[in-house]
Amino acid sequence: MTPDSSNRPVALITGASAGLGLALAHGLADRGWTLVIDARGAGPLKDAADALADRTDVVPLAGDVTDSEHRADLVEAVNQLGRLDLLVNNASYLGPSPLQALASADLDELRHVYEVDVLAPIALTQALLPALTTATGVLINISSDAAVEAYETWGGYGSAKAALDHATRVLAAEHPTLSVYAVDPGDLRTAMHQAAFPGEDISDRPEPATVIPAFLQLLDSRPASGRYRAAEFAAAVSS
Ligand SMILES: NC(=O)c1ccc[n+]([C@@H]2O[C@H](COP(=O)([O-])OP(=O)(O)OC[C@H]3O[C@@H](n4cnc5c(N)ncnc54)[C@H](OP(=O)(O)O)[C@@H]3O)[C@@H](O)[C@H]2O)c1
């Protein structure tokens, strides 16, 4: 740890070895935040941590957010650091690719979507609310337009994100001292997006880094708890 690291804000970002989570980790590292990051794949997570380590202290913990022992390890890492200013529940599961209509959706797959996208974020939030409350911190649950739009074949993921949105609203009501957000980042050129559109050219979708200024503006301005789209922070996104 660097000598002054104890005064730095601490963020835990799930699913930060790739895509939006990795881009957000870089955005926060540029500002000197200390990071706890996870992903299931240990190799890509180590690569991510190595790429961040020149700017900040980073604790990479490989594991699955649905695994209670892994979540306990994440909580322990936060406790070791002594504070938590930001929790970002970003790790997500889309469901099988190609996506399935609800009428024939595999129920085990559907259950797993809900485990990753709803129950794990709630469980991690439960465990970290004391630390977040002490820091008067910020909770960001990553949402999707699929939570509010009824797209054919997106019913599993979309309804899970809708459930996460509503849980976010209830958490905001229950914890008025915290800033509690569901944030829809918009379409991004990532592995998950490619899985949603198998075989399609997604090169016209923006890179995840393009929405990070919007997230930073959210953190800087701390508007009222609620649901936001990254695109609402237009000035930040276009700058
Ligand atoms: N991309 C889009 O167009 C888009 C649009 C709207 C919303 N979103 C939301 O944005 C968030 C990030 O998506 P993305 O597109 O950036 O995804 P991504 O590029 O596929 O990255 C997902 C990250 O999460 C990790 N991960 C996946 N499942 C995990 C689990 N069970 N436990 C721990 N880590 C896990 C992945 O690593 P491992 O595979 O090694 O675990 C990876 O680091 C998600 O919440 C998604 O729903 C994305």
List all distinct small molecules, including ions and cofactors, that are bound in this structure.
NADP nicotinamide-adenine-dinucleotide phosphate
Task: Characterize the biggest β-sheet.
Answer: 7 strands, parallel
Distance between the termini: 33 Å
> Unreliable segments (pLDDT under 50, ≥5 consecutive)?
none
Enter the CATH topology name.
Answer: Rossmann fold
Helix content: 40-55%
Report the β-strand fraction as a percent range.
5-15%
Task: Identify the notable features of this structure and list them briefly.
single chain, Rossmann fold, seven-stranded parallel beta sheet, Short-subunit dehydrogenase, SDR_fam, NAD(P)-bd_dom_sf, globular, 239 residues, binds NADP nicotinamide-adenine-dinucleotide phosphate, 44% helix, alpha/beta
Description:
This protein has 239 residues and is α/β, with parallel strands linked by helices. It contains 8 helices and 7 strands. A 7-stranded parallel β-sheet has the order 3-2-1-4-5-6-7, sandwiched between helices. Helix 3 (68-81) packs parallel to helix 4 and helix 4 (107-134) runs parallel beside helix 5 (155-174). The two termini are 33 Å apart. The mean pLDDT is 96. It binds NADP nicotinamide-adenine-dinucleotide phosphate. Residues 14-21, 38-41, 44, 64-66, 90-93, 116, 142, 144, 185, 187-188, 190-193, 208 line the site of NADP nicotinamide-adenine-dinucleotide phosphate.
